[in-house]
Amino acid sequence: MEYLLDQLLNGLSLGCIYAFIALGYTMVYGIIKLINFAHGEFFMVGAFAGYFVLSAAGIEAIGLPEPLPMILAFGIAMLAAALSSGVLAVIVERLAYRPLMGSSRIAALLTALGVSLFLQNVGIQVFSAEQRGYPEARRYIDLDDAADYVGQTFPGLAYATFTVTSPTGKDSEVREILAGPDKALTADAVAELKYKKDADGEPVGGFYVSSPFSHTAKTLIVIVSLALSFGLLWLLVHRTQFGRAMRAVSYNPEAAKLMGIQSTRVISMTFFVGAFLAGIGGIIWGMRYGKIEPFMGFMPGLKAFIAAVIGGIGSIPGAVFGGILLGVLEVLIPAYLPSEYSGYKDAVAFIALIAILLYRPQGLFGRFEGEKV
Amino acid sequence: MRAASLVTFTLVLALAACGKSDGDGSGNGGGGAAPAGATKIGAVLPLSGATATYGEETLGGLKLAIDEINAMDGPKLDLTYKDTKGDSTETAKLVGQLIQVDGVKAIIGEIASTNTLKGAKVAQESGIPMITPGSTNVEVTKKGDYISRVCFIDPVQGAVLARLALNDLKKTRAAIVVDKASDYSVGLADAFKKTFTAGGGAIVGEETFTAGDSDFSALITKVVSQNPDVILVPAYYGDVGPMLRQAGTQWQGIPVLAGDGIDSPDLLTLMGGYNGDVYMSTHFSADDTAPKVKDFVAKYKAKFGKAPGAMSALGYDAAYALYDAMKRAGTDDPKKVKDAINAIKGLEGVTGTITLDENRNATKDVVILKVKPTGKEFYKRISAE
To answer: Which of A54, A151, A221, B75 is at 20 to 30 A from A320, Cα to Cα?
Structure first.
């Protein structure tokens, strides 16, 4: 029973992240009938934006009372992640999709695939293909105060970052671990830090102490942020002027235009909101699973697409339900299969896709629309 | 529309420029220019991608060794290295390129067995000796007599880990988490199983994952439900690190064993303060007090600003193995150098005393390190037999 419960929670938090991505798929499809395969890459860019903000944020150094700096750092990182995904989506829409408006659906679909590949490769160029460990919440200790901590151990890691020249001749940032749960901080380690330089050639002024969230806390953060985002999205779609315009464009773009709705702006905003959510999904993914790399958007993007189809593409509650259902299935089925089949977990999603297309192609929450002749 | 295409065009240009300035990850080795009459040798290493730290460390060891070699009497070396991006097809292509275009007389690389296997085929067919510093899969040197290595093989590593579990840790119920797509992972797991069950241990579960997976939560919970007293994860640090981080306290009290695939400086960052018992079998310990090793560690630190890893040490030894063979052969003729490499006996390296057996595998001791949240420490040395 406890095993089932644990696995359910694992599935639920995976499903919540799928839902974050699926929302963008479903919104974009709902409004311009485009399956935006580049959506997984918006998610990746969000995760990286969050990574850079969390690794660089100097908020810890300002000296606010705990745990304010931590919450602020994550808040800012989340906003940066969401905004950079959102802005990227608007740019992609303007450059790649809008010129194709009115052409065949296949052309738009292929363009989306092209954009996806393009962004993955830009990701490799810009971020490099290596996997990065996602930063944990942390606090900053100035070298002047370091003496107070000498002899202490920490629940997380105490580390400093500085720059060295790697064998390939490039300057690279290294992280030196000074202390942790098993090792107390020594006066020597602190003394040695004074001679290190950071990326700008400035002396290193202090070090960080990470305080990792517990497994349960992470699961909770994932679920709560999805619930909040979904609630806000629902309000946006059903209770605001913009939401009404969005629904109007989705229902009948021509008629909406005649009623004075600027459909291009609405479409642009829809891309922004969808990718905004994907960006939040990206940072939550990094925090929950601990690593990011430029190809990270591909599989979750594909799964989220399946989730959107299961829920009924175009339906917002459908995307959330589909995402959660897919996450739970993907965890629970291998959990009860004999060990030698546990490698088939990715197959679960695709079998679910085939099943839904065969028996209920409009999805669980979708409406069946007859082809207009 | 016009503006849009203009922006796209600029973007593409900017990207092209980006790619150019970054280079293709290749370059020439050594500190200064290679001396006149130096023999051209090539290296294929993963300098980017999921195993990038291996490439970087190996390159550091190679460069250090070549600088020393070129300052001594005897054959001189001129290194050209290429970035495989950790990809097997790319490795095969680059080995061909080094031989055909750059005209190298010997090749050092790759690290991951899957990649070396592909590259070795090309080297063997071209009759150019290839020494792999760190590929431990048994099949690698079976590609032919031009392929050799300065490290031990997975059956040795797997057996040593099994003996560590049985004899030192006194464990009898092992769960295995294996990457089915990796030759290294499967080979290591098989060797472990054989020795562990022969010694009276039981395998209580064997879970699989695919390299690059992100969510290990279901797997972690499932392993706990199998109630093992030891867990073997024969995989690379890019997967093992995040897996341990996600395990958090769930695997507390159960020792985790892994091979040299996790011996990377990035492991500690990726596992993010995981505070359980983790043991790894590897080639080298920077804490070793042997004078040769201490000297190597000091020189490496002075040159690159950080302590050498196992791959640095293997890269260093691989370069010396080549130097030793060329010196004995008295020529850089690939065929004669190959024969000299295969006859390497009692070569004192920083990873131990290297003797190549009839299958061109190095026989030497296995080092067991204990991984703590803040660093690795020497645990014990276990002989291969």
So the answer is: A54
Does the pLDDT value for residue B315 go beyond 90?
A: yes
Q: Are residues B262 and B175 in the same domain?
A: yes
Flag whether B311 is in a domain: yes
* B48 reaches A (C-beta below 8 A): yes
In a domain? residue B190: yes
Which among B239, B265, B282 is the end of a domain? B282
Q: Is residue B344 part of a domain?
A: yes
Point out which residues pair with B147 in neighbouring strands: B130
Q: Is the pLDDT of residue B218 over 60?
A: yes
Residue B115 lies in a domain: yes
Whether B58 and B74 map to the same domain: the answer is yes
Indicate whether A131 pLDDT > 80.
yes
Name the residue with tokens 């562990």.
B196
Tell me, yes or no, whether B122 and B231 share the same domain: no
Contact across the interface for A133 and B269, Cβ inside 8 Å: yes
pLDDT for residue A65 is more than 80: no
Q: How many CA atoms lie within 13 A of A163 on its CB side?
A: 12
Interface membership of B13 toward A (CB under 8 Å): no
Domain that holds residue B102: 11-152+290-364
Query: B207 and A342 in contact by Cβ < 8 A?
Result: yes
> What SS3 class is residue A220?
helix
Q: How far is A43 from B339, CA to CA, in rounded Å?
A: 54
- The pTM score is 0.84
Q: Name the closest residue on chain B to residue A177, using Cα atoms.
A: B374
Quick check: A21 and A304 in contact, CB under 8 A? yes
User: Is B250 within 8 Å of A215 when comparing Cβ atoms?
Assistant: yes
Amino acid at A47: A
Mean per-residue pLDDT, A160-177: 78
Q: Are B381 and B152 in contact (CB under 8 A)?
A: no
- Residues B230-247 have a mean pLDDT of 94
Distance CA B329, CA A252 (A): 81
| Domain containing residue B274: CATH number | 3.40.50.2300
Considering the domain architecture, whether residues B182 and B245 belong to the same structural domain is answered as yes
Q: Which of residues 104-123 of B touch A (CB under 8 A)?
A: none
In which band, very low, low, confident or very high, does the pLDDT at B2 lie, cut at 50, 70 and 90? very low
Task: Say whether the ipTM exceeds 0.85.
Answer: yes
* CATH top-level class of A2-134+214-358: mainly alpha
- Show which of B243, B259, B282 is a domain's final residue: B282
| pLDDT surpasses 70 at B17 | no
Which of A53, A47, A42, A52 lies closest to A86, judged by CA?
A42
Site from B57, B58, B210, B214 to mutate, A interface, most A CB atoms within 10 angstroms: B214
- Mark yes or no for CB contact A290/B246 under 8 Å: yes
Q: Are B29 and B147 members of one domain?
A: yes
* Residue A156 to residue B7, Cβ atoms within 8 A: no
Of all helices (H) and strands (E), which one includes residue B207?
Answer: strand B202-209
- What's the DSSP call for residue B354? E
Q: What are the boundaries of each domain within chain A?
A: 2-134+214-358, 138-210
**Alpha carbons A252 and A31: distance in angstroms, whole number:** 9
Residue B73 has pLDDT above 90, yes or no: no
pLDDT digits over B342-373, tens only? 999 999 999 988 999 999 999 888 999 999 98
* Chain-chain contact of B373 with A181 (C-beta, under 8 angstroms): yes
Q: How confident is the model at residue A155 (pLDDT cuts 50, 70, 90)?
A: confident
Domain count, chain B: 2
Distance CA B172, CA B227 (A): 11
pLDDT at B145 over 70: yes
Q: Same structural domain for residues B259 and B294?
A: no
Q: Domain check: are B303 and B271 in the same one?
A: no
Considering the domain architecture, whether residues B140 and B176 belong to the same structural domain is answered as no
Would the CB atoms of B214 and A296 count as touching at under 8 Å?
yes
Using 50, 70 and 90 to split pLDDT, how confident is the model at B25? low
**Triad B160, B166, B167: Cα angle to 5°:** 85
